[in-house]
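Why this split exists: single-chain examples teach little about how molecules sit against one another. For that reason, every record in the complexes split bundles all components of an assembly together and asks for one structure covering all of them. Below is a record exactly as it appears in the raw files.
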Amino acid sequence: MNEAKPPPQRVTIRTVAEDAGVSVAAVSKVMRNAYGVSEALRQNVLESIERLNYRPSNAARGMRGQTYTLGVVLVGIDNPFLPQVFAGIASVANAAGYKILMGVGAAHMPMEASLIEQMIDSHMDGIVMIAAQLSGKLMEKYARQIPIAVIGHHEPLAQTFDTVNANDSHGAKLAVRALVAKGYRDIGMVSLGPHRPHDHYDVAPQREIGFASAIAEAGLGAPKIFRFDNLDDARLGKITTFLAGPDRPRALFVWSDLDGIPILNAARQMGLRVPEDLALIAYDNSPVAALPLIDLASMDQSGTRLGQLATEALLSRIGGRKEAQHVLIDPSLTIRSSF
Amino acid sequence: MNEAKPPPQRVTIRTVAEDAGVSVAAVSKVMRNAYGVSEALRQNVLESIERLNYRPSNAARGMRGQTYTLGVVLVGIDNPFLPQVFAGIASVANAAGYKILMGVGAAHMPMEASLIEQMIDSHMDGIVMIAAQLSGKLMEKYARQIPIAVIGHHEPLAQTFDTVNANDSHGAKLAVRALVAKGYRDIGMVSLGPHRPHDHYDVAPQREIGFASAIAEAGLGAPKIFRFDNLDDARLGKITTFLAGPDRPRALFVWSDLDGIPILNAARQMGLRVPEDLALIAYDNSPVAALPLIDLASMDQSGTRLGQLATEALLSRIGGRKEAQHVLIDPSLTIRSSF
DNA sequence: GCGATTCTGTGCACCGTTCTACGTAGAACA
DNA sequence: TGTTCTACGTAGAACGGTGCACAGAATCGC
């Protein structure tokens, strides 16, 4: 690590100050376009910055001020509707002069926690969490140390952080109503398994609530909800058994494309016609669902919009807002041949 | 931003030092398990750290020493074989006590450049780039400021950074040989368009080279390479026209699943039977290709392994290695019903 | 024309670490 | 017993910015 050549010296704020013939503080002010710099000085400094190709050190900035960097915590990079959400986040953040760095939580609580801690330690200015697994209590704790906005996890009572969601119970209702309108009466739901009662505010339970209420609204008796353990390797087998069984409903509302696509696959492979034998509506409207050979109807959450709203909320909180803000937008059904 | 309650004070290295009754420097040494601390002192300090739940500030660390953070630059989050690569990177990095933060370049050179700059500015210890768009020259420049390892971009002559790749030309050969072995003679290739001659070292051109050489090897005449502009909205139409045309080959080697899946879709929709009318082998072996209803044969690059190797290379370079290292691994064909 | 007020720009402490140099105690050596 | 060596710990200077208090210049009101 001992360099014989020290010429590629980093150009620091001091270099710029010297070059422009002003004080270090003046350059700092220009960088943050803070109050108290004349237009002449500003131009002078900007020229030097340009000429020397100066970029402030994030690390140093973080020690006293802002880093103008936002952290994004993902459940996993294979999540299908992530790209849209991310695009939304990036557009708002970049427009406001913020940079973005991401971390992958891998749907693993301790990992998410350590990611957040790392982002705090890197002195990021705020965090957007997408479909977090973290408990509300823990999030409240972190939110006292750094502004946080959460996408894809309802927590309407949270005081210290903001949430932005598509209205999941309403989305489920819309799906059921669409099925009912087509004449289906025997409608079941496939939800995320296993059921964890304390996750009441998570998206899957919310969709169950909407489903049950729409079923009741249509007077279709007791709601039928099925679950497949998604960690299980034998999942495909279980799905097949379920589809071949006698109590398979005529139509299925599936909580996510993640489960909807395997179910569609299994059905077609078994020779079931979709929608003649089995009607399907899933959730997320991911790109795979749109593939012509798949063509799976799916609820669209408008990921881009979610990302934008969450980032706007985060920025306004960084700006000083204290009261929590919980935004809900309406999802809409993307109609395809599967129902 | 003015807090009425300053109690949630950050616990710093000073707090720990005070609590343990030692000097700040001693604590620092323990943190970095550096030379010159007795076991007694070490235990004492570790207890205080535990008790106070101390975590060193990344930003402050970066100012003088290492941050133990690696940056990962992605082309885009929707890239199909990313999750595997990322898993490989994460496993090696975490085992070595490094954290990971990602940035998305969106296949956009200036954005990639600014990401790298940001990572340098955040004083990260090194960068893994996946399928970079950046020119080798620019990468050489950045690599002088921070250790870099590149996945999915050949640059065998680069001196200042390392590369790790699946052998793309060999992969293409394997695909062609598999088709030849099945008896196909009229074999074409769909490659990434438009053709940019200076990208000789990029993966798609490498696959073209392998394709051409395998065609020659089998004595099948001049290689036929087709391109569809992937930015074009009318792409699907062009594909359909191509497939309906008179010079459609009997078998196609497609440079990537990204193009392979739309082609398969288009073919089936037109009523072409795969493989009876058109045989297909694509590249990347992404999860979508494995879906039963898709079932597209594809070259597997072993993303996990690529990620591991690249991270190992990066760590060894951070450790002081000076000479460049260019690793090639062998891809293998995943056989499915499409050929 | 003079004091009061506003506007600019500067100097310096500070943020939380690491790193270099150095002091000290005890062990090993002569 | 005095000297050298080694291991341990410490003090204090970096690192590259930001925030604050303040001084001097410019502007203002009367």
